[in-house]
């Protein structure tokens, strides 16, 4: 079931979105060579407690995974791209780190992700990260009222194809609002002109993620961490948006986002 949100409800989601954006910006500043992933996890825990917010990840137990998730942020390094469990690991020069955060405030949820390169950036990694950001912006631009969900998916797939990156269709974007995962599913590739008509009040998380040389994934033994099947580097960008009469409204936009045009 898809629930269209009222303007007042979208404003409440925007409050959660701005908190998520702020915390991700803080994490980008903290993600330096030598920093332990657990330090980043503990920073997010403190910020959630200070705000009186609620983690969408803690105790999350979907059909995949092994037991309830017992962290408040997903931290995925290099060939890991989704659902990475924070653990005792220090960041090294050149690591590609994807950080994914979903938080609820006063019963309304927002979800966003950003990938950063720690220390010295390899050109191929910069290109990969930039491609996910470009795909995200293309998806946002396509999310106009009256367009269809396939237009959004096709916009992501077109950027991937232009850069030569294969696309995995098992995990993608999703609806959200009162909970982290709601209908509809938003594939990272698709056919324009097909699928759900985008109506004002629809709130969705758009999250293009690419691996450099494969569309296949594997799971770690922890049952959560998703990696590229061939060990190639990965990147992930995500925003929560609302469809409005005036076009897409990004609820998780960060003040420090780079220009991707």
Automatic annotation (TrEMBL):
Substrate binds at residues 83, 181. GO terms for biological process: proteolysis. Binds 2 divalent metal cations per subunit. Has a high-affinity and a low affinity metal-binding site. The true nature of the physiological cofactor is under debate. The enzyme is active with cobalt, zinc, manganese or divalent iron ions. Most likely, methionine aminopeptidases function as mononuclear Fe(2+)-metalloproteases under physiological conditions, and the catalytically relevant metal-binding site has been assigned to the histidine-containing high-affinity site. GO terms for molecular function: initiator methionyl aminopeptidase activity; metal ion binding; metalloaminopeptidase activity. GO terms for cellular component: cytosol. Pfam families: Peptidase_M24. Monomer. This is Methionine aminopeptidase. The gene is map.
């Amino acid at each position: 079931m898809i629930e269209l949100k009222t303007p007042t409800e979208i404003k409440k989601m925007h409050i959660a979105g701005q908190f998520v954006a702020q915390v991700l910006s803080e994490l980008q500043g903290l993600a330096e060579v030598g920093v332990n992933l657990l330090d980043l996890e503990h920073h997010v825990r403190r910020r959630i407690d200070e705000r009186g917010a609620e983690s969408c990840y803690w105790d999350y137990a979907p059909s995949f995974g092994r037991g309830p998730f017992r962290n408040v942020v997903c931290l995925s390094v290099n060939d890991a791209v989704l659902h990475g469990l924070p653990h005792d690991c220090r960041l090294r020069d050149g690591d590609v780190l994807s950080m994914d955060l979903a938080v609820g405030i006063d019963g309304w949820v927002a979800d966003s992700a950003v990938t950063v390169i720690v220390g010295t950036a390899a050109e191929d990694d910069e290109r990969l990260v930039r491609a996910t950001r470009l795909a995200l912006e293309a998806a946002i631009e396509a999310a106009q009222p009256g367009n269809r969900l396939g237009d959004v998916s096709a916009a992501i797939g077109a950027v991937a194809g232009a850069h030569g990156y294969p696309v995995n269709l098992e995990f993608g974007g999703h609806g959200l609002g009162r909970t982290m995962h709601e209908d509809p599913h938003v594939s990272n590739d698709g056919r324009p002109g097909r699928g759900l008509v985008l109506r004002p009040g629809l709130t969705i998380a758009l999250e293009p993620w690419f691996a450099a040389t494969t569309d296949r994934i594997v799971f770690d033994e922890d049952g959560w961490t998703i990696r590229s099947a061939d060990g190639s580097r990965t990147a992930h960008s995500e925003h929560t948006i609302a469809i409005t009469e005036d076009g897409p409204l990004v609820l998780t936009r960060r003040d420090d986002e780079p220009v991707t045009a």
